[in-house]
Task: inverse folding
């Protein structure tokens, strides 16, 4: 996620704001990169140094793209800090690792750091110093930020910072990014190092090859008494973490606890977000009415009030859900549970060709596919990442919810529990369909098994702190708004134009003889959208519906829930505050194919529509995000054709089949 | 013997790490190097992955990965 803007939003940063989007800092004299292995506390450190909002998470591999920010003025001369994705192995596996390595080795096209801050977890000295030696070999000024000092007593270790510094020959500054402790000292050490770099660093002499590298580092640490390890191996396990793990990974309790956590997460997404969503819906409706009332009655005013405000509203309505989702996910990440969840489901998911880490994107997919696709970046192998992205559009996202709500109440009038049950079945089926598609693709299409490895670090449990969690939630949610918001607003504005302008052939000429291309709101029948819908009518005929539903289906490509409001327009529902859905249901029930008395919405056609929405990739924002995440249109286009095609075929087959069986 | 046959919460010493090059390198990079002590500390409900403690770190390893680690 591009989390940089938030940090740059502070006043007085105009020069930074002017930077173009691909980070161009090669010519910037004072670029400092913050590097480190996953979970070393880099991002928390970034937060402390910049005072900005950056991603901090206790889940290996969360910093997935370069985020940057200026160091706080109180720390002396300002530098531009760039947060690099965590690196497990310098034999880079994932694209994020490759990105970090290329920056550190000076191979990156636009980021060329003048100095580096290496975050080193004090409880993981050997492994993290090995990474530091990789950085040291590039012979750039560097400072080690020693993090997680507070956890040392829990692992029965003690680190002598002074001796460590002497042993390594590199400045070492203990910090706690979460509270900001040590940040000022770190920046002082950094400035000193940049002016007058240390020339004799023992780290430079650590060999590249892992086995001897680890031997040399251990010798460095023990010969200089920098690290005291009371219980070198098994007993260094932090018993607090061991105790929690023995419960949450328990043979019998593990999965029930996992499901309780998931159900809790889901129910909060839906129930806690409800009042906020209603409020936002009401606000946007009121704004629309108010704009119409105060603006002159011209096409532009209607475009603003209905097209633009409506489009922004379509994005904003999901914002509460997204915020709650991100907040809870961040809490789970920071506590350390998310890595356990990934370990729990790795076995079943790897059977389907996915990865334990696929579960986080799949979970997010039930709120919205867009943050889910972004979350797939943490999956190390390309094959598993692409496969995860491939099935994400099947996860029943919340934009489908209003559509299902409308169709289910048309299908099962009266009994709310039946509709609720059916909705549950739909949600579960979407997960199963995703599993099926992933399984089939990995068995028959993407058969070549590229290197797939779990080897996932399970961080120690820590109590998440409220402030960093809130900051993180905000920066993720605002990244969602930028990524998803723009396409939805643009597309829905275009669709508004299409459904409100027509050739004007059917318009009575206005008194001055001119024909306005703008058609009346009630006259959708003669709009461009209707022309398209009528042209496409033969194509949607197998689904048993007419062109009006076709217009709804097309408009749903802006965002699925737009289907509901389009249906309200095409079936001429007068806007009367709260009765809209009932009015729409009534009109749908009585709607017939024009010129006949055959009803459009029968059991078979409604089931067909539900199936269509179940499969179809009716979300152009998803397509655009898949394109940018995979780097080509190929997968995005294939996905669009595949799912929309399946949706169409399944819906048509079902309608025809049901009718053959005598279900109308 | 393979790490798969290791008893839980018992110390073992890594003898050799096998497996395809890139996976082997990854395991070595994580600090699973010959001569290092490790222990299986936890298994997960489906028996896969295993949670291994090495160099003060808890690491979830798939059975496939654990099979490449020879210990004594």
Result:
């Amino acid at each position: 996620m591009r989390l940089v803007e938030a940090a740059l939003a502070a006043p007085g940063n105009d020069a930074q704001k002017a930077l173009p989007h691909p980070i161009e800092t090669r010519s910037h004299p004072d670029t400092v990169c913050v590097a480190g292995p996953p979970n070393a506390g880099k991002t928390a450190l970034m937060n402390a140094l910049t005072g900005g909002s950056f991603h901090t998470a206790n889940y290996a591999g969360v910093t997935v793209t370069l985020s940057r920010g200026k160091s706080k003025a109180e720390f002396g001369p300002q530098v531009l800090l760039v947060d690099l994705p965590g690196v497990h192995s310098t034999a880079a596996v994932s694209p994020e690792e490759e990105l970090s390595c290329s920056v550190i080795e000076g191979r990156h096209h636009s980021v060329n750091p003048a100095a580096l801050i290496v975050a080193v977890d004090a409880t993981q000295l050997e492994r993290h110093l090995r990474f530091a030696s990789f950085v040291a070999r590039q012979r750039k000024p560097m400072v080690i930020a020693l993090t997680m000092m507070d956890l040392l007593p829990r692992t029965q270790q003690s680190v002598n910072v002074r001796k460590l510094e002497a042993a390594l020959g590199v400045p070492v500054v203990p910090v706690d990014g979460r509270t900001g402790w040590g940040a000022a000292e770190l920046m002082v050490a950094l400035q000193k190092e940049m002016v007058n770099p240390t020339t004799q660093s023992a780290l430079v002499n650590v060999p590249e090859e892992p086995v001897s590298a680890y031997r040399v580092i251990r010798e460095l640490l023990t010969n200089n008494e920098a690290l005291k390890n009371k219980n070198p191996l098994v007993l260094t396990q932090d018993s607090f973490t061991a105790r929690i793990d023995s419960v949450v990974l328990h043979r019998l309790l593990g999965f029930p606890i996992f499901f309780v956590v998931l159900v809790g997460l889901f129910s909060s997404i839906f129930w806690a977000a409800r009042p906020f969503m209603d409020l936002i819906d009401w606000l946007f409706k009121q704004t629309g009415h108010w704009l119409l009332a105060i603006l002159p009655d011209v096409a532009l005013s209607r475009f603003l009030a209905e097209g633009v405000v409506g489009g922004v509203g379509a994005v904003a309505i999901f914002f509460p859900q997204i915020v709650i989702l991100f907040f809870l996910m961040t809490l789970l990440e920071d506590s350390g549970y998310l890595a356990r969840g990934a370990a729990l489901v790795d076995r079943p998911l790897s059977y389907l060709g996915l990865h334990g880490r696929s579960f986080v994107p799949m979970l997010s997919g039930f709120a919205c596919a867009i943050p889910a696709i972004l979350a797939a970046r943490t999956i190390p192998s390309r094959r598993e990442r692409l496969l995860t992205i491939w099935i994400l559009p099947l996860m029943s996202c919340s934009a489908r919810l209003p559509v299902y709500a409308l169709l289910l109440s048309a299908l099962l009038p009266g009994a709310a529990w039946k509709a609720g049950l059916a909705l549950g079945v739909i949600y579960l089926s979407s997960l199963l369909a995703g599993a099926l598609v992933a399984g089939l693709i990995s068995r028959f299409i993407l058969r070549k098994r590229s290197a797939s490895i779990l080897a996932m670090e399970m961080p120690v449990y820590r109590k998440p702190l409220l402030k960093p969690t809130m900051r993180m939630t905000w920066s993720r949610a605002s990244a969602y708004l930028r990524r998803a918001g723009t396409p939805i607003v643009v597309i829905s504005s275009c669709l508004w134009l299409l459904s409100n302008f027509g050739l004007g052939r059917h318009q009575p000429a206005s008194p001055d003889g001119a024909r306005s291309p703008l058609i009346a709101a009630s006259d959708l029948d003669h709009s461009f959208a209707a022309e398209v819908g009528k042209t496409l009518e033969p194509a949607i005929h197998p689904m048993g519906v007419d062109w009006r539903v076709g217009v709804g289906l097309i408009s749903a490509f802006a965002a699925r829930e737009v289907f509901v409001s389009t249906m309200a327009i095409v079936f001429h529902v007068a806007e009367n505050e709260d009765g809209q859905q009932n009015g729409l249901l009534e009109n749908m029930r009585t709607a017939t194919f024009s010129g006949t008395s055959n009803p459009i919405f029968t059991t078979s056609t409604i089931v067909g529509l539900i199936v269509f929405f179940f499969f179809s990739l009716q979300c152009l924002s998803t397509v655009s995000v898949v394109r940018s995440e995979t780097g080509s249109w190929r997968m995005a286009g294939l996905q669009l054709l595949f799912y929309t095609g399946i949706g169409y075929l399944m819906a048509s087959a079902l309608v025809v089949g049901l009718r053959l069986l005598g279900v109308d | 013997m393979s790490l798969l046959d290791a008893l839980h919460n018992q110390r073992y010493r890594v003898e050799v790490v096998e497996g395809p090059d890139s996976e082997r390198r990854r395991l070595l990079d994580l600090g699973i190097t010959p001569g290092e002590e490790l222990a299986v500390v936890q298994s997960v409900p489906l028996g896969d992955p295993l949670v291994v403690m090495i160099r003060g770190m808890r690491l979830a390893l798939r059975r496939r990965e654990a099979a490449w680690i020879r210990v004594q």
